[in-house]
Amino acid sequence: MKLFCSTVAVATLAILVQPAAAQMAGMDEHAGHAGHAAAANASVEAVGVVRAIDAKAAKITLAHEAIPALKWPAMTMAFKVADASLLKGVSVGTKVRFKLQGQTIIGLTAL
């Protein structure tokens, strides 16, 4: 009887954990937008306001306007930049036009 109860408990736990594991898969940065990404070689331009800059990690956080080409609503998110030198000349609070290729910024201009 103990073996049966243990087997049922393990099977139940495996069934309950499986959906949670599936939800956790792909929870990396921007995972919810993966289906909306433009073709790998296509680029998209958008406008946003700088909320944070991490030059060492070559990342910038932008509160961007909606990006219809990607079907993204307006939101705040962090992006990698292709080259850390793109971060020069911008600071928190600066309104910028940026160019995305995939989910990496390849162009950044203060407005």
TrEMBL record:
Record keywords, A-Z: Signal
Cleavable signal peptide: 1-22
Classification via Pfam families: CusF_Ec (PF11604)
Sections of the chain in a coiled coil: none
Keyword Signal: yes
Keyword Signal: yes
Protein name per its UniProtKB record: Copper-binding protein
Species of provenance: Caulobacter segnis (strain ATCC 21756 / DSM 7131 / JCM 7823 / NBRC 15250 / LMG 17158 / TK0059)
Lineage: Bacteria, Pseudomonadati, Pseudomonadota, Alphaproteobacteria, Caulobacterales
